[in-house]
Amino acid sequence: MKGRYEDENLTWIPILIVGIFLLPFVLKGLTYSYKYYLFVLNMAGIYIILTVGLDLLSGYTGLISLGHAAFLAIGSYTSAILVDQVGIPFVFSLFISPLIVGLFGFIIGFPALRITGMYLGLTTMGFGFIVKRLIIAFREWTQGAGGLEVSFPIIFGYTFKSDWDNYFLISAFAILAVVVSRRIGKSKIGRAFMAIRDSEQAAEASGVNLAKYKMLAFFISGIFAGLAGVLFAHTSHFISTDHFDILLSIYFIIMVLVGGASSIYGAVLGTLFIVLLDYLFVPEMKGWIQEFLNIEGGDIQSLLFGLIMFLFIIFQPTGLYGMWLKMRIYWKLFPFNPKKKFI
Amino acid sequence: MDSLFTGLLQESISGTALGCIYALIALGFTLIYKASEVVNFAQGELMMVGAYVNFFLVTSFMAESGEPTGWIFLSGFIGSILFAVLFGWFLDRIINRPLKDEPVFSVIMATISLSIILRAVVSMFAGPMSLIPVSPFGNQIVAVGGIVISILDISIIVSAILLVVLFYYFFHKTKWGIAIQATSEDPVAAQLMGIAVKRVYGLVWIFSAIVATISGILLAPRMSLLDTSMGFLGLKAFPAAVLGGFGSITGAIAGGIMMGVIETISMGTLSFYFSWIKEINDIIVWIVLIAILMVKPDGLFGVEKVRKV
Question: B233-244 and B284-295 helices cross at what angle (nearest 10)?
């Protein structure tokens, strides 16, 4: 079977998927604190669903969004209200809530037809602030700034209660999101997105309907963010507006860019990198540094996070995916490398 | 009706003072953006660092002599400016130069991580407590007719005007100012004309650090407490800069003042008459921004770019 998939080597994908589902058992065998690792991986999984969608919008189409935490927030609150207050089953909310968030993406796509570049970034940033404030304002449903408790996810009678259960739910959806977004990226839609990013005029001249595809990019990205929001709300049981901060939106765009824009695997790698750095590596290092250097107090965690990010960007501006590409070229040309540079 | 009018007038004046701060931060953004198309997300943090440096200089001078005199504030001010010059030069060296040939995105990300680092470092040095800022003017107020104005607001407005005049002179009359203008117009052509473009970028970062420091020194006494969250105020200067048209200096100043006035009036009179305005007080600047961008996508004073195909 040759055809659509001929440029890809697909043999490692089933192995990877089996690996993902075996990972919790390996972790449980290796360490006692596997629950925390699973929690971190769940976080990464939810963020991956969002960042692959963001990559379609910012990486492929070149429309910068600095307000994606707002889409996550709308997804979370919509699902929480639909399931707990309206009484819709979780399974239906999994489909309805992302569609509603997609419609919000549609609304934000409207100004994007005229506004480009940094202006768009700041408009979406403003959208983030506005959504956060409106969630607090509708306190009849959202309980305002106090936060909202959310029920467990129930699928066909099975209740997902622990991080262990959630891991399988989230990773299944994360894999689905990666596969779907890669297919979108390689389809006619994805090519239209890239044409818009490279030159709006040339795309329009070649028959790409700018308005349609820009709206579509926001809609699709909203659906991904909405799905992430639904999973986030029900697996963390508690949501409050504090979580959906402007900093989170900025982190999302960093995740996409660190991985290397307009590459879905790049977005996955970048998200894993940032989440593992923030939740695992930096806390580990923090304890280490406090022990040896005797520094107390202060926000060592963000200092380390900022420093690592900073050094990474200065020394590796093309991101993780660029690093990977360079490594691959190095091995392909192995004995005859034009430049003796590994990374 | 009369009380409504005096209320509005009073709010406009204190709004103008707040707006001047926004304008100065926006000016800092604009300088860097004009020269290198980099959006400096650390501008608010530069302001915070300036305010902290000034605070520590002034309090340590005060501890030496005991008496708060004008000279102490003046030397604190000069010390902070010197620090800003060094800091701006240092930032150019560590951020701008290594990333010169990289996409603009990388530089923007570097400034984001810089803002995280600066917040953490300052909180480490200053401790977790908020500080109470000192001001050379205290809490004095002047009453003109029915309007009460604090000396602090007047000092902010006056220094902002002075700074803008200085900048105008610098950009239009001096050799270096014209070099900066030429570089922001077209870096390659500027280089061909014999302008040291790298040095111009360094200068731009230094200027932006100076403006940020001055806005920090002016803003600190206006806030009751000084803590690291001051840097987030820099985010509010974004809509101001965009409202006026990103990359236009007049636009940054006009946009900043407009935003300050709109925000103050909506917190005062409008909230008094329409209670629902209270809910959206802190996002009103963003609503105004989006509304205006829908009508004029390049900002109020932005030049509409003619795009080449």
Answer: 20
CA distance A81 to A73: 12
| Dihedral sign for Cα atoms in the order B52, A245, A67, B240 | negative
Q: Supply the range of the domain harboring residue B159.
A: 23-233
Q: Using one digit for the tens of pLDDT, what is the confidence trace for B214-233? A: 988 888 888 777 777 787 88
- Subunit contact A119:B297, Cβ cutoff 8 A: yes
Longest dimension (CA), chain A: 68
Nearest to B215 by CA among B69, B77, B36, B62: B77
In the chain, the amino acid numbered A26 is V
Query: Does any domain span residue B139?
Result: yes
Gap from B116 CA to chain A (nearest CA, Å): 5
What is the DSSP-derived secondary structure letter of residue B186? -
B16-32 pLDDT per residue, tens: 988 998 898 888 888 88
CB crowding A189-203: b at 16 or more within 10 Å, else e: bbebbbbbbeebeeb
Of the candidates B109, B119, B289, which has its C-beta nearest A313's C-beta?
B109
Tokens standing for B91? 């930032």
Q: Answer whether A126 sits within 8 Å of B299, measured CB to CB.
A: no
Q: What is the pLDDT of residues A202-222, one digit of tens each?
A: 888 988 898 899 999 999 999
3-state secondary structure B164-232: HHHHHHHHHHCHHHHHHHHHHHCHHHHHHCCCCHHHHHHHHHHHHHHHHHHHHHHHHHHCCCECHHHHH
Residues of chain B found within 8 Å of residue A127, distances taken between Cβ atoms: 286, 290
This model of the complex carries an ipTM of 0.81
Question: In angstroms, rounded to a whole number, what is the distance separating the alpha carbons of residues B222 and B126?
Answer: 19
B39 domain residue, yes or no: yes
In the predicted model, is pLDDT for residue A105 greater than 50? yes
Number of domains forming the structure of chain B: 1
Q: Examine residue B53 and state whether it is found in any structural domain, yes or no.
A: yes
Q: How far apart are CA B278 and CA A88, in angstroms?
A: 34
pLDDT given for residue A104 in this prediction: 92
For residue B280, give how far its alpha carbon lies from the nearest alpha carbon of chain A (Å).
7
Give CA–CA dist A214/A224, Å, rounded. Answer: 16
Please check whether residue B257 lies inside any domain of the structure.
no
What six digits make up the tokens of A106? 């549609």
- Which one-letter amino acid corresponds to residue A206? S
Q: What are the helix and strand counts (H, E) for chain B?
A: 12, 2
pLDDT score recorded for residue A214? 92
Cα–Cα dist B33/A191, whole Å: 31
Q: Residue B226: beta bridge partners?
A: B131
Which residue's entry shows tokens 């977005």? Answer: A267
Contact A298 B239 (CB under 8 A): no
| Chain B residue with minimum CA distance to A302 | B120
What is the pLDDT of chain A when averaged over all its residues? 84
Q: How far is A329 from chain B (nearest CA, A)?
A: 21
Each domain of chain A, given as residue ranges in start order, spans 32-265
Are the beta carbons of A342 and A330 closer than 8 angstroms?
yes
Hunting for tokens 């407590």 — which residue is that?
B129
Secondary structure element (H or E) that encloses residue A154, with its range: strand A154-155
